[in-house]
Amino acid sequence: MQDNDLTRISEAALKGALTRIEAPSGALLSDAESAELTVLLDQLAAHYPHQTLTDETGEIWREAYQLLAKRYTIRRLRDAMVELMVRPGQKFFPHPTEAAEALDNLIAKERAATAIVAARSRRAEDLRTFWAWVDQRMSDPDTQGMTEQEFLDTVKLPGYAGMKART
Predict the structure, then answer these.
(1) Domain boundaries in the chain?
(2) 34: Cβ–Cβ under 8 A, 6 or more apart, which residues?
(3) Does pTM surpass 0.90?
(4) CB contact burial 85-95 (16+ within 10 A = b; e otherwise)
(5) What is the gyration radius of the CA atoms in the chain, in angstroms?
(6) How far is the C-alpha of 38 from the C-alpha of 59, rounded, in Å?
């Protein structure tokens, strides 16, 4: 290789390294959402007064936080960032990947809570159906003379075996 070739390669590498990565085309957030994100990030920055980010880092992080806000909503981003603020050992402004991880944890908690509510609702509906079936069976001729508890003692269905009579 000649010196001229090396110079062109070095110039190309330098130009590539200095080229700014542009945000995806089109606005990620509305003006109102962008203003809300700015307020959130300013409030968070005030919580970490001993850390100074370079303008370039702040700009790229802001773009990353815009993506997170678009993907998860600003409300969820705020909730996740508050969780990070009170996390023991969190001494620095959260890196966007930390925020993404906190958001994933928040979503998992929301899904688990939703699943619990749904399971409780299904169980309540199952019990209503079960007691309607008990009422129907108690009126059948083959259960005449039995108390509700005596009938319930014959039930062997998992989840319903051992049920106590209504009072």
Answers:
(1) 23-152
(2) 27, 66
(3) no
(4) eeeeeeeebbe
(5) 31
(6) 12
